[in-house]
Each structure stands twice: as structure tokens, then as C-alpha cells.
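Can't paste images in this forum, so I'm doing it all in text. The chain is below; anyone willing to post the predicted C-alpha cells underneath?
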Amino acid sequence: MIKILLFIIYTLTTVHSFAQTDKNQNDIATNQNTNVVPYRLFPTQNMWTFIKLNTRNGRMWQVQFSLNEDNRFVTILSSETLVTSDKEVNDRFFLYPTTNIYTFILLDQLDGRTWQVQWSIDPQNRGIIPID
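Text version of the structure:
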């Protein structure tokens, strides 16, 4: 009796875990690795905040979500395009986190230029600075 019960539990658990596989999730992960993604979201160490990066031209936005509608917003971190439109390529730019919760390094993966990216709740503390 116990063997039959364990077999049924094992079978149901296995079937349930296969049912949890989401084809769309797999497609998104595949697309993010095949240079066809013009935008990416990068998590920060703050559980409510992401940075949205236009991987073609380096423009960025701070995206904050919340259960409270008043605390949800999208704000510009950098509205300046870092390359001319004829040099835009998907996945040209990529963000790397640092050990500082508010700081990322933006890398132009084609020419090697780098920028310090600062996100913040305070508007005067947001922006990017070239690293020469």
C-alpha cells in the first residue's frame, strides 16, 4: 500500500513539474541570447527597482514597481543616445552591476567605452558619467 501511494505521489509530482514549463519563458531566454533584443531589464539590489536599457543606443530608464500605485514609476536615467542611428545594433550595450547598490557599469560591447550609471529615488542623484 505504501509503495503504491509513493508511486502515485511521485507520478503526480513529475507530471506537475513538466506542466510548469512555460514555452514563452524559454523563448524569451533564447531571444535574450541571440542578439535580437532591443531592450533588457536589469535587476538592482533593491527588490522594487529595475533598469531598462535600450541595448541599441544606450538610453536607460529607472523602473520601479510596487503594490502601491503611488510608488510605481518609470523615469529617465539617460535620454542621450550614445551612438548615431546608423551604428545602432541590438545588444551593443550591456549593464554590469557593481558592489554598490546604486551603481552599474554600462559597456559599449563594440568599441569598449564605459560609463558609470547611477540610479536613485532622488532625481538629482540619477544619471551616467563617462569613464575615460
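Strands lie at 39-43, 49-54, 60-64, 73-78, 93-97, 103-108, 114-118, 127-131. Residues 1-34 form one domain.
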